[in-house]
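To close the section, here is one more complete example, presented without commentary so you can practise reading it yourself. The ligand is VIB.
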Amino acid sequence: MTIFTDHIHQAAEPLWQQSFDHPFIHEIQSGQLPTDIFRYYLIQDRYYLSEFGKLHELIAEQVDDAHGKQFLLAGAQGLKDGEIAVRKGFFEQLKITPEEVKQTPIAPTAYNYVNHMYAELYRGNPQQAIAGLLPCYWLYNQIGQHLIAKGSPDELYQRWIETYDSDDYTDSVDQMIVLTNQAADQADDDVRTKMKTAFLRSSAYELAFWQMAMDKQNWRVSA
Ligand SMILES: Cc1ncc(C[n+]2csc(CCO)c2C)c(N)n1
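Output:
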């Protein structure tokens, strides 16, 4: 029998390929991504990351398996200590202040991506929500592994690439894959189909997130 995550990964392949080929990723690698686009991405991603951490805690509350619960809670803590902390260095270098973050409205795609993950949990179930978290871990790891071979001539972009190629990070991706397969094992066919949809939609939002940054997407109206 095909492993569930292999099946959904294969279904998402055309979307992932478009992320690998996206100008945002190419320009990170070449060092030509304009700093204002990267700054915009980091500010939008700051919002995404804090909601992503909260989602780990909310999903953990609904997971029975002690090991899975503990992994999700550790993930939430890891986001506070790790991913978000790493970003602090970027923020200081690019002079992004907490005030600027607070003043910047969340853009439509970031808003929709986060709301999609909440909907998977609250209008669906924890299994769907776990599948919705997985592309975030897994896609960035694959991007990190693609880009690390060549690296980027830009020191800041090189550091961004390295974040997603570390052994610790790759380890957490493997654990998230195991958790998703465990959730699928406990699910019936209907929930498994919904898990696949959640995974594909998150993959589509990951792709849209790069374009959101390139377009400096906004609501076309001041809040
Ligand atoms: C839109 C968006 N998608 C994925 C990531 C990457 N990421 C965010 S949290 C996390 C798990 C552990 O740190 C990973 C890999 C990102 N930064 N922004």
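Once you have examined the tokens, check your reading against these statements. The chain has a mean pLDDT of 95. The chain has one domain: 18-215.
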